[in-house]
Structures are given as structure tokens and as C-alpha cells.
């Protein structure tokens, strides 16, 4: 096994400092512990050496860094082309999977088949949702690396479970939501089930949906998250509700 950076080394290099302060919090936001390090070299030992030094390294250096660097540092206005979106989405999914493995659950949320497919293609699964937002608060040199599990009941007896991941560095905020449908006891899914997902707070003016890809939109939107709204944004699915899509 090899250690994959939780905070990409190149992101830390964008914000040089003599020390970095970290805190780890539970799902309710309560600080569990705080510490200081001379660098951002935090790693998760859940990846094989070949992956870490191969496709993961290439993803970071050849795709993610060129696509994200100016967005992080300057909040530079960019056009979200298919190439840029593919790079950012792949970075988001890779980082979300690593964050999920840190939870040390007996059954990972993302299946081994899903992870192997991503490693081969760097294509994010089609049922995953990813958004970008812009931050202009006082903690521009700070970051967020936050994940949570969500669950909700549906009128037909099925359940929706979801994995949520929010990441922020400098001006750039990304959020990933991966929902999966769990059939009711004794039932099978037909493959035709469709549901809309609604968060408890509306951030439509602040976000750009980038995955699934629908077009070359500009970022940022012109509306920026501050310190209070960033916290609300990261928790916006805490009261998640699901509504069946109307049939045509």
C-alpha cells in the first residue's frame, strides 16, 4: 500500500507557509482534535503503490492542477469546457473515494467494480452529481475536506442512500453527491425508477453543475459564498428529501 495525499501536494504549494493548522470534526461539526504541521502532507494509506504513482499522479499533475490552479488562487473567470470539466470531475471523484475510505466502513459506498472502472477510464459514474461554487470569505488560505452519509425514505417503500463530499481550497469549492437506490424488502428495482433530489436550502445562484456535463458554462456565477454560507452549503443536504419525477 502507498499513501495518497488527502490534500494534494500541489494545492499546498499554492499557499506556502511555515506551518498549517488542521482540525478534525465529527458529523455534527464538533472538533475532535486539532494539530499543526509544517506542511499539508496528510495521506491515506488506502491506495496501491502502482495506482498512487501511476494514474493518480498523472491525474493530479497533468489534468487537475492545470485546470484548477488559477481558479483556486485567483477565482479567475473561466469557461468550463469539456476538457476542464473532465479534469475537475475526475479529481473530485478520486478525492471523494479516498475520503470515503477514511471512514473505515466494512462495506465501502463505492463498489470495487466502480472504482476499477474509474481507474481504467477516469470517467465519473453517470449517477454522480458534481457542482462548483466560488468562495470569497476571510479564509482564502484555508480548506475544507468534508464527507457524510445521507439516507431518506421514498413513498414507494424504497430508500435512497447518498454519499456527500465537499472540498474547498482558496476560491474554489466543489461538492459531490452520489445517490443510490435501495429496494424495499422483497422488491426488485426495475431500472425505470427516477427521483428528483431537493436540498433544504437553495444555492442555484451560487453553483454551476458540471457533472453530468451539460454545456460550457462560465465560472464563477457572480455570486460568492462567504463564511456563513459556505457552512450552510456544505450542510445543505442534511435535510435531504426525494420526490418521484412526474411521468410523462
Keywords:
globular, 6 helices, 248 residues, alpha+beta, two-stranded antiparallel ribbon
Overall number of structural domains: 1
Approximate strand percentage: 25-35%
The CA-CA distance between the termini, in Å, is 50 Å
Unreliable parts: 1-5
What's the helix-strand series? EHEEEHHEHHEEEEEEEHE
Q: Give the biggest sheet.
A: 5 strands, antiparallel
Structural class by secondary-structure content = alpha+beta
Number of helices: 6
The average pLDDT score comes to 81
Share of residues in helices: 25-40%
From the alpha carbons, calculate the radius of gyration and give it in angstroms. Answer: 18 Å
Q: Which term fits the overall shape?
A: globular
Count every beta strand, where a strand is a DSSP E run of 2 or more residues: 13
Summarize the entry for a quick read.
By secondary structure, the protein is α+β, with helices and mostly antiparallel strands. Helices cover 27% and strands 31% of the residues. The protein has one domain (2-244).
Notes on the protein architecture:
With 248 residues, the protein is an alpha+beta fold. Helix content is 27%, strand content 31%. The model is unreliable at 1-5 (pLDDT under 50). It has one domain. α3 packs across α4. The strands form 5 sheets. Strands 7-8-9-6-11 form a 5-stranded antiparallel beta sheet. The radius of gyration is 18 Å and the shape is globular.
Question: Helices, strands, pairings?
Answer:
Elements: E1 2-5, H1 9-13, E2 20-25, E3 31-37, E4 43-47, H2 49-53, H3 55-74, E5 78-79, H4 82-101, H5 112-121, E6 129-134, E7 143-153, E8 159-169, E9 172-182, E10 195-198, E11 208-211, E12 218-219, H6 227-234, E13 241-244
Antiparallel strand pairs: 1-4, 2-3, 5-12, 6-9, 6-11, 7-8, 8-9, 10-13
Amino acid at each position: 500500500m502507498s499513501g495518497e495525499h488527502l490534500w494534494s501536494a500541489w494545492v499546498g504549494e499554492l499557499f506556502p507557509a511555515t506551518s498549517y493548522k488542521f482540525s478534525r470534526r465529527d458529523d455534527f461539526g464538533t472538533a475532535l482534535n486539532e494539530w499543526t504541521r509544517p506542511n499539508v502532507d496528510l495521506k491515506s494509506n488506502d491506495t496501491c503503490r502502482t495506482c498512487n504513482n501511476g494514474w493518480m499522479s498523472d491525474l493530479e499533475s497533468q489534468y487537475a492542477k492545470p485546470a484548477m490552479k488559477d481558479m483556486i488562487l485567483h477565482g479567475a473567470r473561466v469557461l468550463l469546457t469539456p476538457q476542464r470539466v473532465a479534469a475537475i470531475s475526475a479529481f473530485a471523484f478520486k478525492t471523494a473515494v479516498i475520503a470515503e475510505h477514511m471512514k473505515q466502513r466494512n462495506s465501502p459506498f463505492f463498489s470495487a467494480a466502480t472504482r476499477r472502472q474509474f481507474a481504467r477510464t477516469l470517467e465519473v459514474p453517470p449517477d454522480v452529481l458534481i457542482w462548483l461554487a466560488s468562495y470569497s470569505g476571510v479564509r482564502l488560505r484555508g480548506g475544507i475536506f468534508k464527507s457524510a452519509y445521507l439516507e431518506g425514505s421514498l413513498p414507494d417503500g424504497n430508500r435512497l442512500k447518498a454519499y456527500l463530499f465537499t472540498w474547498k481550497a482558496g476560491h474554489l469549492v466543489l461538492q459531490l453527491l452520489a445517490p443510490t437506490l435501495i429496494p424495499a424488502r422483497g422488491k426488485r428495482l426495475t431500472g425505470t425508477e427516477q427521483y428528483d433530489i431537493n436540498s433544504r436550502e437553495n444555492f442555484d445562484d451560487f453553483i454551476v453543475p458540471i457533472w453530468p456535463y451539460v454545456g460550457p458554462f462560465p465560472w464563477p456565477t457572480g455570486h460568492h459564498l462567504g463564511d456563513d454560507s459556505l457552512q450552510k452549503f456544505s450542510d445543505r443536504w442534511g435535510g435531504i428529501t426525494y420526490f418521484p419525477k412526474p411521468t410523462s
